[in-house]
Design goal:
Strand content: over 45%
Structural class: mainly beta
Radius of gyration: 12 Å
Number of helices: 0
Strand order of the largest sheet: 3-2-5-6
Shape: elongated
Order of helices and strands: EEEEEE
Length: 70
């Protein structure tokens, strides 16, 4: 999974991937720079087909999006 995330300044974020039942399937800490950052989550091939929620939490913001694995 690859996505872009824009930040107003350098910060550390927690990226979590949660399945439909609310179970955490992946959690990663990543440092982002000011501006647009390219974020890649690797090793997701073992995930079953379904809907997942991607959560990105920083010091002041939280972004959530839905991901569908076919």
């Amino acid at each position: 999974v690859e996505f872009k995330l824009e930040t107003k300044g350098p910060q550390s974020v927690t990226i979590r991937l949660v399945d439909e039942q609310g179970r955490l399937v992946k959690s990663v800490e990543q440092s982002l720079q000011r501006g647009v950052n390219r974020v890649v989550l690797n090793n997701l091939s073992q995930l079953k087909k379904g809907i997942y929620i991607l959560e990105v939490s920083g010091a002041t913001d939280k972004v959530m999006d839905k991901i569908i694995k076919l």
